[in-house]
Structures are given as structure tokens and as C-alpha cells.
Write a structure and sequence with these properties.
Blueprint: E1 2-14, H1 21-38, E2 42-48, H2 62-68, E3 77-80, E4 94-99, E5 103-109, E6 117-119, E7 133-135, E8 141-147, E9 153-160, H3 178-209, E10 214-220, H4 228-234, E11 248-249, E12 262-264, E13 267-269, E14 272-276, H5 278-281, E15 284-289, E16 312-318
Parallel strand pairs: 1-2, 9-10
Antiparallel strand pairs: 1-16, 2-4, 3-4, 5-8, 6-7, 8-9, 10-14, 11-14, 12-13, 15-16
């Protein structure tokens, strides 16, 4: 049997600055024990910032490099995102997939399947209409095909969907009006659900090529099990749907009292997910959420030492090829 561990972890705005080395040392001191406890063979990371060595230089993953130094992940192969349309990472909220084993294919998707579109706000009561709002994903999603020791490919999709917070929409009544907030909330939903659709349609192409594919969809969905993005990504209309292309939510196999990755205003929520295709779910053995001591994201201090998200790790055992 081939055992391996697959994890996802939102690092909560991982950043580095030469002028704030002490603060960064505190963060790495809190994050590294969590990473080591995960003992992951494949690790999906979100919210990685990129920095410049020189003022006008290209951004690099300095914070990530320094975080992983001295850990078992330092020598792992990596797939990382770049700013859409560019060749360097974005300043904030990049994605990474780390692998103990060879990454054979890597790709990011940003409106490759679902095109950008303009949403026309409804007319005001006086007949006027605001300018159309372009619906664009906040960041790309990341895909990697990893060659497992038994020779089988494991397809990993790492994504960080938009938070369901209203986007400022200009209206005749002003940005602070209730109508602007309502329309802004709808636009945020279009972005979140739209990118979930693109990710799921990409997964459909993997199934078309390989019906029994081993596929994992991991990351911060900014949605719980009942929200539309999670249901789209699972591939079934109902939570109890089954079928040859319906994913199993491995994070929900944790005991109810431990089934949360974020605490929001005193309410434990599960917004970081690890979904497995049917062929991969058969090999599942255990899921753990490392949420001991997790801070409430609403009442947390300004400086967060580790993360306001708890990492999720699943253990699998695959038969030899």
C-alpha cells in the first residue's frame, strides 16, 4: 500500500519585510510547528504575499522561502501562481502547491473556461442606470498533476474563492447607500460562484480524459458545506448526492465538535475544504483539522502569529499500481 498525506492551509496574509524581521520571526515560529505536525506529502497553501528585494525588482516568494527553510518542505517541488497576464507573483494572495514527488504538469486558470462578463445593474426608480460592472475573478486557481510513487497521477486543484463581502458598486445614490451594498453583495456572489463554476468545469475535463481519475480540490472556499460554491465543486445538487463524478467532502468526516476551520464572532465555521473524487475517496483513511487554540477572526488582535484558519490534512492508502 502507498500511504500519503494531503493538506490545505490558508497562511493568513503571509508577508515579509526587512524592517519587520522580528514580527516575521514570531510568525514563522508559530507556523512551522503546524506545518511539521501536518507531515504532508502534498500541501496546498493560500494567501502567500510576494515581495521585492529591490524597489523596482520583480516580486518573489521571499516570505514563503524563509518560512519553509529548515522544514521538511524546503526541498519539495512547487507550483505557484503569477499575476494573470504577467510573469511574476501578485503582491498578495498567491497560491502554492508543494509536493514531495514530481509535479508533471502545472497550470493556473483565470477565465480560461468561463469568460469575463459585464453585469448591468437594474435601473434606478428615476430610470437611470449605473455603469456595467465587469465580473473578474480576484485571483487565479492553481492546478498540478503529481506523479505518486506507484506511478499514478494525482490531480490537485488549489483555490481561494472570494469572501462573501460586498464589493463597492457605484450607484446614483452613492457608494454608502443600501442599494450599493445590496448590489455589491450580489457582485461578490457572482465572483465567488463563477470561479467555483470554472474550477468544476476544469475538473470535468479531467474526468473526460480519465473517468477514474484521482482528483483533490482543496483550499479556502469562503463557503460552508451548504453554500453554492461548495455544492458546485462537489458536482451534485444535494449534499447527499452520489455518482461517478461527485466529490466526497473529507473535512466533514471529522467529529462534529472538531469540524471547523475558522471561528467568526463566536461561531465555529467550516470554510476550508478538502474534496476527493470517488476513486481517491476510496483510499481515504483519516482527516484531521488542527484547530486547537484557534483565534476568533472578529476579535483577534491586529497581529496574528499563526493563522486565523486551521489547516486540514487527510491520510490515504493507495494500492500499488
Amino acid at each position: 500500500m502507498q500511504a500519503f498525506r494531503l493538506a490545505t492551509f490558508n497562511l493568513e496574509n503571509l508577508d515579509w519585510s526587512a524592517t519587520k524581521s522580528e514580527a516575521f520571526a514570531r510568525r514563522t515560529g508559530a507556523l512551522r510547528p503546524l506545518l511539521e505536525t501536518l507531515d504532508a506529502d502534498i500541501l496546498c497553501l493560500q494567501e502567500i504575499h510576494a515581495q521585492r528585494v529591490h524597489k523596482h525588482g520583480a516580486r518573489q516568494y521571499i516570505a514563503l522561502d524563509q518560512l519553509l527553510a529548515t522544514t521538511g518542505y524546503e526541498a519539495f517541488q512547487r507550483a505557484t501562481t503569477v499575476r494573470p497576464g504577467g510573469g511574476a507573483p501578485a503582491d498578495v494572495h498567491n497560491l502554492a502547491i508543494l509536493s514531495r514527488w514530481p509535479i508533471r504538469t502545472r497550470r493556473q486558470l483565470h477565465h480560461d473556461i468561463v469568460a469575463r462578463w459585464n453585469w448591468p445593474p437594474p435601473r434606478e426608480t428615476d430610470g437611470s442606470r449605473s455603469e456595467p460592472v465587469e465580473i473578474v475573478w480576484d485571483r487565479p486557481l492553481l492546478y498540478a498533476s503529481i506523479e505518486l510513487p506507484n506511478g499514478l497521477p494525482l490531480h490537485v486543484v488549489n483555490l481561494h474563492l472570494r469572501a462573501p463581502r460586498a464589493i463597492p458598486v457605484a450607484t446614483a445614490r452613492g457608494l454608502g447607500s443600501s442599494r450599493a451594498q445590496i448590489e455589491g453583495q450580489f457582485v461578490a456572489a457572482l465572483k465567488r460562484e463563477g470561479q467555483a463554476l470554472e474550477a468544476r468545469l476544469f475538473v470535468e475535463t479531467l474526468f473526460d480524459a480519465e473517468p477514474e481519475a484521482l482528483i483533490a480540490i482543496a483550499g479556502d472556499f469562503n463557503a460552508d458545506a451548504h453554500d453554492a460554491p461548495t455544492r458546485l465543486l462537489r458536482g451534485g445538487g444535494d449534499e447527499d448526492a452520489t455518482g461517478s463524478r461527485v466529490f466526497a467532502p473529507l473535512e466533514e468526516r471529522v467529529a462534529p465538535g472538531r469540524r471547523f476551520t475558522v471561528i467568526h464572532a463566536g461561531r465555529p465555521t467550516l470554510i476550508d475544504h478538502l474534496l476527493a473524487s470517488p476513486a481517491l475517496a476510496v483510499a481515504w483513511r483519516e482527516t484531521t483539522i488542527l484547530n486547537d487554540g484557534l483565534q476568533d477572526e472578529v476579535y483577534a488582535e491586529e497581529f496574528v502569529e499563526a493563522s486565523l484558519h486551521a489547516p486540514v490534512v487527510a491520510r490515504f492508502e493507495l494500492a500499488a499500481k
